[in-house]
Design goal:
The chain is of the alpha+beta class. It folds into two domains: 11-131, Rossmann fold (3-Layer(aba) Sandwich), CATH 3.40.50.300; 144-227, Translation factors (Elongation Factor Tu (Ef-tu), domain 3, Beta Barrel), CATH 2.40.30. Helices cover 24% and strands 35% of the residues. The chain has helices spanning 44-55, 73-89, 105-109, 118-131, 214-220; strands at 2-4, 11-16, 29-37, 61-66, 100-102, 144-153, 157-163, 168-170, 174-179, 182-193, 196-198, 200-202, 206-211, 225-227. It is elongated, with a radius of gyration of 21 Å. It comes from Ornithodoros moubata (Soft tick).
Length: 228
């Protein structure tokens, strides 16, 4: 998922592999995209967000020069140098080899197929695939999943929603709903992701889990964690 600030021109956009919430630790981050407007250049918030990424040890940065259709090539080249200088000032190792993409978010949203329209977004996605390293996930440890919500669906039982932080979970696995000094044992009867039923989920997956215990539902509404 992609999340960031509302000031897109000169803001940092953090690319997270989980539920789109603003990551708080390095393990939740894959990289970042610094978005700079061609008519403004690097802004103060650009520096602030790069500082946050540096403190969290996010070292994979991609530059995206937005509104590229408003500037000529000399201006775009100058902004590219400005971005690289800023990365170098913060001592990012990727300062000289970070991909810099020119494009226009507005043109892409309008369906423009020119160089600065949809083509630029495809270039950005391609750069993300090649430049960002796959996140490190602990799929072997004990299952742990912070709970974001719970509901009771007739015919299915308890459904809890969250992102699996650690481990691998399969159908029919026995788990415990934890919180407020309680441990409620129950069984996973179904796992769904993006509206589809799957046989198992691993660390990093955002899923909904069905459980067969009515007692588990009553406690899941107040619980904070699922584990086994």
């Amino acid at each position: 998922m992609i999340c960031g600030t509302s000031q897109m021109d000169g803001a940092i956009v953090v690319v997270a592999a989980d539920d789109g919430c603003m990551p708080q630790t390095r393990d939740q981050m894959d990289g970042a995209i610094v978005v700079v407007a061609a008519d403004d250049g690097c802004m103060p918030q650009t520096r602030e967000h790069l500082l946050i990424c540096k403190q969290l040890k996010v070292d994979k940065i991609i530059g995206f020069v937005n509104k590229a259709d408003l500037g000529d090539q000399d201006v775009l080249d100058l902004i590219q140098l400005e971005i690289r200088d800023l990365l170098d000032n913060f001592k990012f190792e990727c300062a000289q080899n970070a991909p810099i993409i020119y494009g226009s978010a507005l043109k892409a949203m309008e369906g423009d197929t020119s160089e600065y329209g949809l083509q630029s977004i495809r270039k950005l996605l391609s750069a993300m695939d090649s430049f960002f390293e796959p996140p490190r996930r602990d799929t072997e440890g004990p299952v742990m999943m912070p709970l974001e919500g719970a509901m009771n669906i007739k015919g299915r039982g308890t459904v809890v929603i969250g992102t699996l932080f650690r481990g691998t979970l399969k159908r029919s696995d026995h788990v415990e709903i934890l919180g407020f000094d309680q441990k409620i044992p129950t069984t996973v009867t179904e796992i769904q992701m993006f509206g589809k039923s799957i046989p198992e989920c691993k660390a990093g997956d955002h899923v909904g889990l069905s459980r067969c215990s009515e007692r588990a539902f009553q406690n899941a509404k107040l619980a904070t964690m699922l584990g086994c």
